[in-house]
Design a protein that fits this description.
single chain, 18% helix
């Protein structure tokens, strides 16, 4: 890339269904140069991915239920990628009690970002009887 400094980075854009193959390079003066995008979303995506990458974090957390030993969770909005590992470690180190409902907040504010962790499935409080047992 002419007028660029450093090695260009190749990305696949996920901002829309086109999946454009982007090339991003830092121009002299620090400006990012994006090529390969077929819509304006690609340029925005590339800039965010290079300067401040964020991810939706999904996981399962342990519960105190024998019938439902794990409950699925996810962040409500993308979290700065640098915080994902710490969030997962915190989630995996605890056990949570049922019942929970889809959309219940597990963590209200991850590291001051305003990002919430939500349960993504409703799980009942009572144990489910085994097949063949009355219940």
């Amino acid at each position: 890339m002419s007028g660029s400094t450093g090695t260009p980075v190749a990305l696949v854009c996920i901002a829309c269904p086109l999946g454009c193959r982007l090339t991003v390079a830092k121009a002299e003066g620090g400006e990012l140069r994006v090529s390969g995008n077929r819509c304006p979303k690609g340029e925005v995506y590339a800039g965010e991915e290079m300067l401040s990458p964020r991810r939706i974090v999904t996981a399962v957390v342990r519960t105190d239920s024998a019938a439902y030993p794990y409950a699925p969770v996810r962040t409500d909005t993308p979290l700065p990628r640098a915080l994902a590992e710490g969030l997962l470690a915190a989630l995996y180190s605890r056990t949570f009690s049922l019942p929970v409902s889809n959309g219940d907040v597990l963590v209200d504010d991850v590291e001051g970002t305003g990002v919430k962790v939500l349960f993504t499935r409703t799980l009942p409080p009572e144990e489910v009887p085994a097949v063949g047992e009355p219940g």
